Amino acid sequence: MALKLSSLVSSSVVRRRLPLVGAFCVLSFGLSNLCPSFNPSSKTGCAQSLHFLPILGSKVGSSVHSTNRIRMEASSKTVPSIVVYVTVPNKEAGKKLAESIVKEKLAACVNRVPGIESVYEWKGEVQTDPEELLIIKTRESLLDALTEHVKANHEYEVPEVIALPITGGNLQYLEWIKNSTRD
């Protein structure tokens, strides 16, 4: 068994894929999660075992934690923003509602995602319906107005309006959300 395992580990297939696995781990978990003692300015801890660090240059050393995401409060050019989910029964309803939301400057952007299937309980029975999902990016301060707009322009008795906070992201995109919506 040990002989088979050692021959497997030394095989060229495994050796070719190990760097990919390592890169995947670094990208997925980040340097600080893989190596809690990681300090790029330090010559101690596990930074010594990160032989690829010089290849990455000074960007890693100065921004391991800061480039994970731009915090919303980092700039006066942004406002607290949210992503809102709204489901609609079909493509036509989705297009009409999305266009009215953007036209009224209640959102900077609405993505229409066709082909979803919702399973839910309504009036004591489990229902399964094809729907389209609207993903709406807007200011947090516009949630009430957006909710009222959806309720007034939606054919469902109780339309879905679910808001999730945007905690960070591309600063230019977050500024665009602010500039594309009403105050």
What are the key terms here?
183 residues; alpha+beta; 4-stranded antiparallel β-sheet; two-stranded antiparallel ribbon
Structural class category: alpha+beta
Order of helices and strands: HHHHEEHEEHEEH
Give the overall silhouette. Answer: elongated
**Unreliable runs, pLDDT <50, ≥5 residues?**
4-21, 23-29, 31-68
Number of continuous helical runs? 7
Annotation, overall tally of beta strands: 6
Q: Which oligomerization state do the chains in this entry correspond to?
A: single chain
Largest sheet: 4 strands, antiparallel
Mean pLDDT: 76
| Strand content range | 25-35%
End-to-end distance, in Å? 69 Å
- What proportion of the residues is helical, as a percent range? 40-55%
Strand order of the largest sheet: 3-4-2-5
- Alpha carbon gyration radius: 24 Å
